[in-house]
From TrEMBL:
This is Uncharacterized protein. The chain crosses the membrane at residues 7-29, 35-58, 79-101, 113-134. Keywords: Membrane, Transmembrane, Transmembrane helix. It comes from Flavisolibacter tropicus. It comes from the Bacteria. The lineage of its organism: Bacteria, Pseudomonadati, Bacteroidota, Chitinophagia, Chitinophagales.
Amino acid sequence: MKNLADILLTTLIAVFVGTLVSLVMVLLLSTADSAILAAILIPFNIFLPTLLGVSIYHSLKTSKLKLQQYGVFQQGFRLSIVFGAGLLLWAVLEVLIGSGIQAGMLSKMKRTFVSQFLGFVPVAIAIAFAIPIIDKKLNTNKTAAKRDVADRL
């Protein structure tokens, strides 16, 4: 149960970070009206993929791969590769499910990725680096709280 709470809290904070990155991008590239719409829609669009990413991170952290032995930057880099591959796979599956295997499929996959998924790449990278940082901070706070309780006893 404790692990589930960690996953949900990390997900919520990472979604907040991803939303902030998205809003900065929208404000730089569009109008304030678009930013208001983005502030409402983006957290819902990135919640489930972020939850999946945090779950993958926690499972890799405790698996035989021992992700926690790497530094926060290396963890973020490895997660960003996984997230990038996930976005690419999502675009490929969307084309395959939508139109099946046909001539010109690679160019259609590229167009789909550029038009629908490229905007999520900076958000995915920000979330990929935020997840290990958030997890480390949460675990540091728990360790400090446990020491405080032990010192008081």
